[in-house]
Amino acid sequence: MPLEIKDWISAAAIFASAIVASVGWVMAARKDRKHHIFQKRLERRLSMLDDVIQAVVPLMNYRVPFEQDKDLPEKLAKARLSVQLYGYMAERTRYEALVEALESADWPKTKDALNELVPIIRRNLREEMGYSYSDFE
User: Fold this and answer.
1) pLDDT score, position 23
2) CB 3.0–4.6 Å: which of 50, 72, 102, 117 could bond 94 by disulfide?
3) Dihedral (C-alpha) 12, 16, 21, 23: value to the nearest 10 degrees?
4) For residue 4, what pLDDT band results from cuts at 50, 70 and 90?
5) 103 exposed, middle or buried (CB, 10 Å; 0-12, 13-18, 19+)?
6) Phi, then psi, of 46 in degrees rounded to 5
7) Using a CB cutoff of 8 Å and minimum separation of 24, what contacts does 95-103 make?
């Protein structure tokens, strides 16, 4: 083969290698970015769950929760903000129903709202982490 053809083949091989390496780098960066976003979203959702637990546990365990836990209004406000920022629509709707029931001092409605809110948040987090709901039953 003439020298010119060998040079072109070498140049084409180098060019093809550079394209393959560039495409691989872009795909790896995209995958890494998606994973990073997933991790951050999950961290925020888990902190939301922690805030909701801090607010909900006194409501479920105490007969007079606002007297027995003086920080409960602040916990409820923090949980409300977390749910509004990081919650899904169903979670936000159920939490607002809980707040309305608490503001009207309707305890049966509050218990119903709690019984709807907690399973929804739990199920959504489990799905995000890749667990099936039956794994925990």
Assistant:
1) 95
2) 117
3) 140
4) confident
5) exposed
6) -70, -35
7) 95/52, 102/59, 102/76
Show me where the domains of the chain are located.
41-136
Which residues neighbour 92 within 8 Å (Cβ) at sequence distance 6 or greater?
A: 83, 84
CA–CA distance, 72 with 88 (Å, rounded to integer): 23
What is the 3-state composition of the chain as percent helix, strand, coil, each rounded to the nearest 5? Answer: 85, 0, 15
* pLDDT tens sequence across 83-101: 999 999 999 999 999 999 9
3-state secondary structure of 131: coil
Compute the average pLDDT of residues 69-82: 93
CA–centroid distance for 62 within its chain: 29
- What single letter denotes the amino acid at residue 34? K
Q: What confidence category does residue 29 fall into, taking pLDDT thresholds of 50, 70 and 90?
A: very high
Average pLDDT over residues 114-130: 88
Place of tokens 């608490």: 102
DSSP annotation of 33: H
